[in-house]
Design a protein that fits this description.
The protein has 148 residues and is of the alpha+beta class. The chain is built from 4 helices and 5 strands, in the order αβααββββα.
Length: 148
Amino acid sequence: MGILDFFRRKKESKQNIIKMLNNIKNLKLNTIFLQVRSTSDAIYKSKIYPTSMYISKEEGIETYDVLAYFLNKAHEKDIKVYAWINPYRVRTTTDETTISKKNPAYKYLNTDYLYVKNGIYYNPAKEEVTNLILEGVKEVLTYRIDGL
């Protein structure tokens, strides 16, 4: 992705967030549940998870801190933001080749730390996985979210 494309996508993303929040406010709603970690990735600056492919089109490509921007704009409009995470889901498909080396799940490929069936998931029975999930939750809690 070239630098001009990055700035264009960032501008469009921020415009979409504003539109979304305006729609919420116009509907007289006051709370949103925002998915901040959908598939072992993040829409925030994470030291654990790569940037979401849903934000940057490819997992792990750095972009701006979407969660921080979203929270700032939502709170300006008195809209509460609850962070939503999918703690165990790594992928919605069984295609392991889409997992980048930046993803913590990468080191678990071909082990019993992941299971593949109608998607790819962390094994919640593994203590290391539980610790990974907890560390990720701690990261989210450093933001001014209204709930998790």
